[in-house]
Amino acid sequence: MDIKQVAKDTARVMASYLTYQAVRTIINQLSETNPPLAIWLSNFSSSGKIQDGEVYLKDLLEVNQELAFRVMTVRDYLAEEVTEFLPSMVCTEIKQANIEHRRQHLERLTRLNWSDSSLSPEEDIQNEINLDDPVT
Amino acid sequence: MDIKQVAKDTARVMASYLTYQAVRTIINQLSETNPPLAIWLSNFSSSGKIQDGEVYLKDLLEVNQELAFRVMTVRDYLAEEVTEFLPSMVCTEIKQANIEHRRQHLERLTRLNWSDSSLSPEEDIQNEINLDDPVT
């Protein structure tokens, strides 16, 4: 398991995700101050290229330098504000989700076992008799 | 800007991404120890539902409990190992990428300005004359 590579890939994915969050923030701000520009940025960002934050920024720089600089500033700010809480949040998120999956799975299995063994009372009695008297 | 919500969303995206990395790790391990199972897991995971790690795990639990538990264990391990380095890695990643975008953009602008002003020597002289003698 190449932990170093996983960490590197995860950091890159997070940088892209924070770019997306920065764009969302700016679209929200613009929808109050400059609605036409909010619509323009929203259309520009919906083409799927925001999946890769760096390609997105390169393209945005060529058509609207001011907005691109604003996205860079906001994502930098978000990274500073958000990342320090992430280690504990992600670990907790995963541990809690794992517990919940195990609980639901156990519940499902118990339900299945219960429905397998939910025979009619007569059958239950017959089973009890059989259990009580292994000779029969 | 709702920093708390951004942090929460980012943690959820990261948990999903680490689930994907855990699955990749397990497919790699299985391709050495149990190639048919590696192919099965690879096919199961390629249907796009791995985008949401929790939906993916829920589905996997129903068809292969052992593999689902293994994914949960590995993603928990990855979270413990990887997340502590992420705050500085993500901040550095974003700052460096921002610097690089600004540098490339400045270079492009400089190139454009240079090509605008790259006239022939005769034209330069003529321009100089015009500049020196605003009356003409």
Q: What are the main properties of this structure?
A:
6 helices; mainly alpha; 136 residues; homodimer
- Helix and strand sequence of chain A: HHHHHH
Ends distance of chain A: 57 Å
Anisotropy-based shape of chain A:
elongated
The averaged pLDDT of chain A comes out at 86
Number of strands of chain A: 0
- Helix percent of chain A reads over 70%
> Which two chains touch over the largest interface?
A-B, 50 and 50 residues
Percent of residues in β-strands of chain A: under 5%
Structural class of chain A: mainly alpha
Helix run count of chain A = 6
Q: Based on the structure, what is the oligomeric state of the protein chains?
A: homodimer
**Spatial extent as radius of gyration of chain A:** 28 Å
Q: Major β-sheet of chain A, in short?
A: none
Low-confidence stretches of chain A: 124-136
Explained architecture:
2 copies of one chain form a homodimer. Chain A is mostly helical. The first copy, chain A, has 6 helices and no strands. In chain A, helix 3 (53-63) runs antiparallel to helix 4. Chains A and B meet through helix 1, helix 3, helix 4 and helix 5 of A and helix 1, helix 3, helix 4 and helix 5 of B.
Helix/strand layout:
2 copies of one chain form a homodimer.
Chain A: H1 3-33, H2 35-45, H3 53-63, H4 65-82, H5 86-117, H6 121-132
Helix pairs in contact in A: 1-2, 1-4, 3-4
Short note summarizing the structure:
The structure is a homodimer of 136-residue chains. In chain A, helix 3 packs antiparallel against helix 4 (65-82). The first copy, chain A, has helices spanning 3-33, 35-45, 53-63, 65-82, 86-117, 121-132.
